[in-house]
Inverse folding.
């Protein structure tokens, strides 16, 4: 089975972003960029499945500007076998992203797609589900446990009230939640080896995908700011403030 | 305009998140039709029909919809979506699961987690863990939208008398099967609907210490939450997580205990009306958003709080 892992280049999770003065977006000048944390978990899960002998090849794909090849190299250093870079604008909307991935799933004969459940920049939580729909595939979103057996994927999902387990035919789409695994670090020899692994570049035109979207971002603004309140000296003072000042208890 | 709202329920009762979504539908304006898809869920349809502002309820009652499998639900929604200008669902793990599927099958964008309606085609949604708010405009024929509950009040449960129409269409995809679920049973209010929430973080040190929070919660009728650090450390189950990737809450009172205040946690609670932070580290970022901060050892302060309330 071939596994496709889709990864996104995003601002590092520890960077506090600021909105640009002209409200056109957030300012990422010189910001540290990284593999989206949920995508790291997706890479790790694919590697574990391969280590268990359940997959022959892991293909890491990223869609965006040339710089996202850096994140593909990270995936290759961790254990993906080869990479595909779909060269496009960095801010494609989820539906065109899903359409591009669907073309790759068809072209490569993919048995399982693993993605992060959401990216920490646009916070959409859509691509995996859209890809599953476009390919007529079942989906196991927000996964915290994955087993592959008898040609099916058994996926335990984190849901609002607890956990739910579903059984899916293959090919299937899985999106990762935080507790699926703890991603490993790349070793130096593997980082060196990754530089020699195959990394192909394709364009949306070559894949025959229209990347337009019906959604337009009009403005990006900072949220209303919340100012620090007062420090109270004791539990008694806290209770009194909550009762008489805030009137919430 | 006609708006289709997909009800969130457990086949027995309508979930409050549906009521917030109906309010978002009212802000858009137009006829509001609620779809109740489930199994043996006629009681849910009756509740939906009673909600003020609902003009019609569609009931799809069949075993294939029992567990809200997204493969089946999305096929059903797409089957009827053509008659509507908007399809709305709560941005819960259920809505987030099937709505992108609906949008992709319709060939339109999906708009996630809106917190405000500017007009029938323009919405506000948080990005970057709530550190920025994006205003987005859709030119698609059908707007497929998930609604963040904390952005909208609950619609009144009574006052409506909508007709209930039965849908006989059965959409079974045969690619996914429900196996089992393990739901947390709690006497306490649900996190996302509670008016008071008390949450613990890494400072709680272990899961057993959450009993300290339970004592306060019992006195206040509060729900109990946790930071991602506490969940990742295995102190408490994941469905208690408040934050960017967990639950988003906006209670009247939020008490953060032993929580440092990482961006990802603040994303889930900073719209609370009043925030209290109890932490022994006076430099903790949580104090920058707290209305009332108490620099103290939680193992002394929290039992004292429970006693004195």
């Amino acid at each position: 089975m071939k596994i496709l892992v889709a990864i996104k280049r995003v601002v590092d999770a520890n960077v506090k972003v600021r909105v640009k003065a002209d409200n056109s977006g957030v300012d990422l000048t010189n910001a540290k960029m990284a593999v989206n944390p949920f995508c790291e978990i997706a890479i790790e899960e694919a590697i574990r499945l391969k280590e268990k002998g359940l997959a022959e090849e892991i293909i890491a794909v990223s869609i965006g500007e040339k710089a996202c090849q850096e994140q593909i190299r990270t995936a290759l250093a961790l254990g993906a076998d080869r990479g595909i870079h779909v060269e496009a604008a960095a801010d494609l909307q989820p539906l065109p992203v899903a359409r591009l991935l669907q073309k790759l799933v068809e072209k490569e004969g993919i048995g399982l797609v693993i993605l992060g459940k959401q990216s920490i920049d646009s916070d959409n939580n859509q691509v995996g589900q859209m890809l599953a729909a476009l390919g007529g595939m079942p989906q196991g979103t927000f996964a915290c446990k994955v087993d592959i057996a008898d040609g099916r994927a058994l996926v335990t999902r984190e849901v609002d009230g607890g956990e739910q387990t579903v059984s899916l035919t293959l090919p299937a789409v899985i999106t990762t939640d935080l507790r699926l695994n703890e991603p490993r670090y790349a070793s130096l020899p593997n980082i060196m080896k990754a530089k020699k692994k195959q990394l192909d570049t394709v364009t949306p035109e070559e894949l025959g995908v229209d990347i337009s979207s019906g959604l337009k971002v009009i403005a990006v603004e900072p949220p209303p700011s919340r100012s620090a309140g007062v420090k109270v000296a004791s539990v008694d003072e806290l209770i009194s403030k909550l009762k008489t000042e805030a009137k919430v208890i | 305009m006609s708006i289709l709202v997909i009800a969130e329920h457990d086949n027995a009762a309508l979930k409050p998140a549906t009521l917030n979504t109906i309010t978002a539908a009212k802000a858009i304006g137009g006829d509001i039709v609620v779809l109740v898809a489930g199994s043996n869920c006629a009681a849910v349809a009756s509740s939906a029909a009673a909600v003020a502002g609902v003009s019609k309820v569609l009931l799809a009652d069949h075993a294939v919809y029992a567990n809200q499998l997204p493969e089946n639900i999305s096929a059903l929604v797409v089957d009827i979506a053509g008659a509507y200008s908007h399809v709305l669902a709560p941005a819960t793990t259920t809505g987030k699961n099937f709505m992108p599927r609906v949008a992709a099958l319709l060939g339109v964008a999906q708009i996630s987690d809106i917190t405000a309606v500017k007009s029938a085609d323009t919405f506000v949604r948080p990005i970057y863990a709530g550190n920025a708010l994006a205003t987005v405009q859709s030119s698609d024929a059908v707007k497929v939208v998930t609604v963040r509950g904390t952005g909208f009040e609950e619609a009144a449960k009574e006052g409506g008398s909508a007709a209930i129409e039965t849908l006989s269409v059965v959409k079974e995809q045969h690619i996914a099967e429900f196996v089992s679920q393990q739901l947390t049973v709690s006497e306490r209010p649900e996190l996302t609907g509670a008016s008071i929430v008390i949450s613990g973080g890494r400072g709680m040190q272990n899961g057993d210490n959450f009993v300290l929070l339970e004592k306060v919660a019992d006195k206040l009728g509060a729900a109990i939450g946790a930071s991602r650090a506490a969940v990742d450390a295995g102190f408490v189950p994941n469905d208690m997580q408040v934050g960017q990737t967990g639950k988003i809450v906006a209670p009247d009172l939020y008490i953060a205990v032993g929580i440092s205040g990482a961006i990802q946690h603040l994303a889930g609670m900073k719209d609370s009306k009043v925030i209290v932070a109890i932490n022994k580290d006076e430099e903790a970022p949580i104090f920058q958003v707290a209305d009332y901060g108490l620099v103290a050892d939680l193992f002394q302060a929290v039992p004292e709080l429970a006693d004195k309330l």
Notes: The mean pLDDT of chain B is 96. The longest strand of chain B covers residues 31-38. Chain B touches chain A through 91 residues (CB under 8 Å).
